[in-house]
Amino acid sequence: MEEVALAGPDGTIEVVVLPEVGARLHRLRAFGHDLLRAPDDPAEHLRDPLSWGAYVMAPWCNRVASGPVSIAGRRVELAANFADRTAIHGQVHDRPWERLADGTFRVRGGGEGWPWAYEVSLGIGVGARSVRLDLGLTNLASDPMPAGLGLHPWFRRPVLVAVRGDLVHPSNTVAVPIADPEPVRGSLDLRALGEMAAGLDATWTGLADPAVELAWPEAGVRAEMRIDTPSPHVAAAAIVGLDAIAVEPQTHAPQGLRRLLRGNPGALAMLDPGATLPLGIELRFERLDDWAIAGA
User: Fold this and answer.
1) What class is the 4-295 domain?
2) SS3 readout for the chain
3) CA 123: distance to chain centroid?
4) What letter does residue 50 receive in the DSSP assignment?
5) Model confidence band, residue 291 (pLDDT cutoffs 50, 70, 90)
6) C-alpha angle with apex 85: 72 to 146, nearest 5 degrees?
7) 197-206 pLDDT, tens per residue?
8) pTM, to two decimals
9) Backbone φ, ψ for residue 9 (5° rounding)
């Protein structure tokens, strides 16, 4: 399996990308420490594409109810690919992507119950202390297309996290009724750096800048995540028994397709033919000692 290695000018930040499996980040290293949940054998991503690394979600994020629905004059009928009988995390996270001459990655999708053709692009820039990911979802169809875009990283535990959002959708499942986000409280208030409660699976909005802070005290590494998109959201999950947490920047709220059908805020965007939905994500890294000195 091809591995594309990228590094900053002094090698402090390193990224390994697997074009054959969704152009996903197989590894992300800062100051010599692996920060993503990554298998020793890259082929494991093919056997279990949802639980490793950091992968792109498009043309929707999170869960969509399986089965037929009519939208914008088209019939959407997605097959379930998750234990709760939903279609989860889009169509491109486990497909082969093409690497272009300028170093960006690209894949075309559509079909398999999604009646619009589209293209997803990913550019990766590695700096001395940062990683910049520029994602784009382009509608190649002749009529408007529902569109959602995101990144699903699994950050290795032990890790502390802050999601600085004032509002939250308390559940990412499709079993709960559609509702507007509510003010954060209790275990759903992640505005201060700390451990995520086991079993938490929710989506935050009303985000500050930076939206997310992460810290690995044992590794002595801290990171800030900034998100650049018209309607930023962050889904986060602490799955019981898994040695990682997911902190997912994305463009819409849970149940994005149902929200679109009902006219609720936080829905999938309706993307005109030829238009592109952008999502920029920047991770900036520091040693914890450097951060403490700077904040003293």
Assistant:
1) mainly beta
2) CCCEEEECCCCCEEEEEEHHHCCEEEEEEECCEECECCCCCCCHHHHCCCCCCEEEEECCCCEEECEEEEECCEEEEECCCCCCCEEECECCCCCCCEECCCCCEEEEEEECCEEEEEEEEEEEEECCCEEEEEEEEEECCCCCEEECCEEEEEEECCCEEEEEEEEEECCCCCCCCCCCCEECCHHHCCCCCECCCCCCEEEEEEEEEEEEEEEECCCCEEEEEEEECCCCEEEEECCCCCCEEEEEEECCCCCHHHHHHHCCCCCCEEECCCCEEEEEEEEEEEEHHHHHHHHC
3) 15
4) T
5) low
6) 20
7) 999 999 999 9
8) 0.95
9) -60, -30
Number of Cβ within 10 Å of residue 107's Cβ equals 20
- The owner of tokens 């930023």 is 232
For 246-280, the pLDDT digits (tens) are 999 999 999 999 999 999 999 999 999 999 999 99
Collapsing DSSP to helix, strand or coil, 267 comes out as coil
Distance of CA 145 to the CA centre of its chain: 20
Q: Is the pLDDT of residue 294 over 80?
A: no
**Domain locations in the chain as residue ranges:** 4-295
Q: What is the pLDDT of residue 292?
A: 56
